[in-house]
């Protein structure tokens, strides 16, 4: 199946560049573009893309608020945030808003396409070398951090809590299975139960939850 993508960025060169790169992939099609968050919300409603590539800093409505509105309107919406290292402080807010992950704007064509495929498949784009550091560091800078959800954590079994911590550390299902020496199908079951018990939509929110509940120590 072809993955339908909406590109949201106020810079025309960025939109055109990403559009050329993604349309060159046999399994990806750019179905629309938007220049700000408000237009993105309208385009998502009209086009129903599989993945939204969302810039953060834009006029009229920024990418964080747009992501929040898009996800609120459709819990299955998949938003992949675009950022640069000098905008790292916004990534944590975007993840809390419901984004499924993020990509750096200087990503290669292969990284961009792979990121779109990962998010489209329902997985979160959690790179251990970058996402872990960002969530760890900028959870401390959140303007309105949520208190540790100890009651919800108490609903998890010991193994489910262990899986949640490993998700927050950026491990894939296969890597978690290898680490715990169990079948990957078993891990998929644990992940599904964790998401249901905590009322979370995907692995990204699970990672944010783990940091906010202090199950993972920043470092």
Automatic annotation (TrEMBL):
GO molecular function: DNA binding
Keyword DNA-binding: yes
PROSITE patterns named among the record's database cross-references: HTH_LUXR_1, HTH_LUXR_2, RESPONSE_REGULATORY
Residues annotated as domain HTH luxR-type: 149-214
Keywords carried by this UniProt record: DNA-binding, Phosphoprotein, Transcription, Transcription regulation
SMART domains in alphabetical order: HTH_LUXR (SM00421), REC (SM00448)
Keyword Chaperone carried by entry: no
Protein name in UniProt: DNA-binding response regulator
Source lineage: Bacteria, Bacillati, Actinomycetota, Actinomycetes, Kitasatosporales
